[in-house]
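Example (one chain per record):
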Amino acid sequence: MFWSPTFNPTTDLLDLTGKVILVTGGKDSKGVGLSTCKHLARKGAKVYLGARSEERAKAAIARLQEEGISPGTVEWLPCDLSTPQTAKEAAEEMLKREQRLDVLVNNAAILADTMIGVNADGITDSLLVNHISHYILTLTLLPLLISTSRLPKSDVRIVIVSSDGHRRSHAADTDISFKTIADFGKTYKEERMGPFARYTVSKLANILFASALQRRLSSPSSFPVSPSFPALDEPVDITVVSLHPGLVNTFADRLPFPAISGVLLGLVAKSPDGGAWNSCFAAASPKIASEPDKYRGAYLLPVGKIVAPSKNAQSEELSEELWATTETYVGGLKL
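Predicted structure:
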């Protein structure tokens, strides 16, 4: 965070008047998602805060209004990503509400599932929420994103919040695979840090999904038509970016001795407001608008710095494995 270029979300973002944006995972009053909503709303966008809890979401929106965000600028969208079915319902609700969608920020995530949880199909909670539910949400919203990209002066972006944690733990293993549904159910329960291992694998999946999606949008003729992806006659002008928000202090209260942990984290970690800057850059920086080809499929460190992700994250073979297996699993659900 110390070498990040100077960035100010008040002056360094596009005017977003008339734009519609959805940010998932914004219910927490101290979270990155809520700060992302705030900065983008201040630039004139109509922002949907995607969250499961109406009570917590509305409390968060009330806090934004106390900070000067006009009523009606940020609205709650029921968005429960804990199951594929509810993720689909969230997207369908968004389709009912809006005729355009300029930016989708896939921000919600499980940082550490405290139990070794798998769903009825044997898929880990981390991979389900952090990857599969966002895959369903994104592809259900894709026709609206595509139609918006064809409007005059459009600048449609899909932002996927990953983590540099994808370079760690089992996500960095040379033998990692996404060839089968069974690969989605590896819990690493034998590890001391099993929840972290599951998290890093899901963050690797975020980057692989972003690159696979960008390829399909940029070169649709190179891929067969599938049930989950619309048939496209020509490339689509949508920029997909994945990113690391930086180390952000949103969890000190869940650590032992939270008061002390908060002080120590404050020395090395960003505030949630600063943690939102990279997402805001990806969502609305004029630099991306002026050089979209440079940023399509890119992975960003704060703020707006293009870097190469891990070797696994750069693997087209691995990303296509992930896409195919996710598509097979989701297709079998018949949502």
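Caption: Residues 20-333 form a domain with the Rossmann fold fold (CATH 3.40.50.720).
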